[in-house]
Automatic annotation (TrEMBL):
TM region(s), chain numbering: 29-48, 92-116, 123-147, 177-203, 224-247, 285-307
Residues of the ABC transmembrane type-1 domain: 89-306
Domain of life per record: Bacteria
Subcellular location: Cell membrane
Name of the protein: Sugar ABC transporter permease
Pfam families: BPD_transp_1
Membrane topology classification: Multi-pass membrane protein
Length: 317
């Protein structure tokens, strides 16, 4: 009888799933909305315009109101088969990687030097770096062009004083190799202060107790730098290197002013000047927009390694 009553009893109704509490936007999220909207409007419109223009035949006639014919991916196919385009791409990638690496090494050495010297020397070094960093690009380029001038340049004058070296009226801007050597020196000189200050800020966060313990265990200065300091400031070095690669890939003003003082041949072009010549020079804004989209994709590809490491660290934390 008991078994019959138990079998005939109605089954208990399943409990409804618990409702998750709705997440409400906090004050910090609400404060971010205006900045996000400004970024989307300020950066989204030019990007959309470039994407649309890269699929059109947009020349000087379209500047005066004539409709732009739609050509699809024809501009991209033309770039893919243009040997000049790929020469500029290879040259730009090599230039940005070399200058970024040299900038990082020099900036790291200066940052370590600032932690090792006294207060007076450190202040003099920091003020010198700030003055170099704060100098306007055009003013700095005017000085640098004068220094490498073939007739009245200070560099040729000093090198000509070295026994066995003949630098009289040597033109630094007449060949692509010496042209990009000068450009690399200028770009590194302008970028080193930012790298040095950023890495120095990271070095100030390294614990003195850890370094003293390593020194007591017999680690010399090089080992402390390699096995203790470098791993601790690795995030700073990664973001600084990424920023330098992006900036040096898009360098424009320095190359343009050096070309004005030397040669404007395509052999002296990087991606920035190549886009400018296609757009403002040849009035082919469709092709210039296609190259700009390509540079954006290249920048994202270079940045992906750092973004992927950030995502891994976020998942581990």
């Amino acid at each position: 009888m008991t078994a019959t009553l138990t079998r005939d009893a109605p089954a208990a109704a399943p409990k409804p799933p618990a409702r998750r509490p709705r997440r409400r936007l906090s004050v910090p999220h609400l404060l971010l909305i205006p900045a996000i909207v400004i970024l989307l409007v300020g950066m989204g419109y030019p990007l959309i315009w470039q994407v649309i223009t890269s699929t059109q035949e947009f020349g000087i006639k379209q500047q005066f109101g004539q409709p732009a014919p739609f050509v699809g991916l024809a501009n991209y196919f033309s770039l893919a088969t243009d040997p000049t385009m790929w020469e500029v791409v290879v040259r730009s990638i090599a230039f940005c990687f070399i200058t970024a690496a040299v900038t990082l090494v020099v900036g790291l050495l200066l940052a370590v030097l600032m932690t090792a010297v006294g207060t007076v020397v450190r202040l003099i070094l920091q003020i010198s770096l700030l003055l170099a960093w704060a100098m306007p690009v055009v003013a700095a380029m005017t000085v640098w062009i004068w220094m490498f001038d073939r007739r009245r340049g200070l560099v040729n004058y000093l090198l000509d004083m070295v026994p066995g070296v003949d630098m009289n009226r040597f033109s630094w801007l007449s060949t692509p190799i010496t042209f990009f050597i000068v450009a690399s020196v200028i770009v590194v000189w302008m970028s080193v202060p930012f790298v040095a200050f950023s890495i120095y800020a990271g070095l100030t966060q390294v614990s003195e107790e850890v370094l003293e313990a390593a020194q007591l265990d017999g680690a010399n200065g090089f080992k402390r730098l390699r096995y203790i300091i470098m791993p601790m400031i690795r995030p700073v070095i990664m973001i600084v290197l990424l920023l330098q690669l992006i900036w040096d890939l898009r360098v424009f003003t320095q190359i343009t002013m050096l070309q004005d003082a030397g040669s404007k041949s395509s052999e002296y072009d990087l991606l920035g000047t190549y886009i400018y010549k296609l757009g403002a020079g040849a009035q082919d804004f469709g092709m210039a927009s296609a190259v700009s989209i390509f540079v954006l994709a290249l920048t994202l590809a270079i940045s992906w390694f750092y973004v992927r490491s950030l995502l891994k660290e976020d998942e581990q934390s």
